[in-house]
Amino acid sequence: MKISFIFFNLIKFFYILLFISSYQIFSSTNKSNNLKIPETLKVCTAGGFIPFTYISNGNWYGFDIHMMEAFSKHLNSKLEILNYSIDGIIPALNAKKCDLISTGMVITEERKKSVLFSNSYFKSKIIYLFKKNNLNIDKISNLHDLNNLNYKIGVKIGTTNDFYAAKNLNKANIFKYNEYGDLVNSVRIGKVDAIIIDSTYGLYLEKKFPNIFKFKETEGNDQYFGVATRLTEKELMKEFNYFLSKWKSNGEYEKEYKKFF
């Protein structure tokens, strides 16, 4: 009887330990049995979109980069960042070159046909940036007023700003650029009158070069950023949304937000 009693208590103790271990695992993650956690989380991004994703001194920085670093730790995976042009980033994802896209990508109905988006992690606006001494542009108070043959407008290829200009500024002369650096330089040297960009990037440029640039934003041009994966990767996106919710509630989101914005 004594041996049986000891054996029973050992079995009981074992199950208690098993329960505690399981609770610790599943309380910190939301991983389902169907989620295949990658040993290395591969993330496609389009560098140069300050302050979301950019390279400085050979290293990746930015809000999106730090968010992906936190998510990879959540998964207990290594992280690999892959740089693509914005117009080639969705094809790269669907060709399985990476697991996720995180690059300040705007959630649109058209993109939803090709990728699965996360819950939004950032709200922005479409704005126009111009040289401070350009009085002809400064007197304008609305993006639609730029829809005129007299104006030269710059956009980055493949962005929602590019799509916006094609739809709403088709009377203006549109100049398209592959890189943000070339886009910004085009307005700095006067090749274009204004560029259409994200409000966060516009604020960054205005603060860094207060004597050169100025930007204006108008109502009704809100944009929402999301992380994207393939349409079939529902479990991975479910896990990211769980992580994002926790990241916001534990104060880490706010910490990174203050750091970059």
UniProtKB/TrEMBL annotation:
SMART domains: PBPb. Gene3D superfamilies: Periplasmic binding protein-like II (3.40.190.10). InterPro entries: Solute-binding_3/MltF_N. Residues 40-261 form the Solute-binding protein family 3/N-terminal domain. The chain crosses the membrane at residues 6-26. It comes from the Bacteria. CDD domains: PBP2_peptides_like. Keywords: Membrane, Signal, Transmembrane, Transmembrane helix. This is Transporter substrate-binding domain-containing protein. The lineage of its organism: Bacteria, Pseudomonadati, Bdellovibrionota, Oligoflexia, Silvanigrellales.
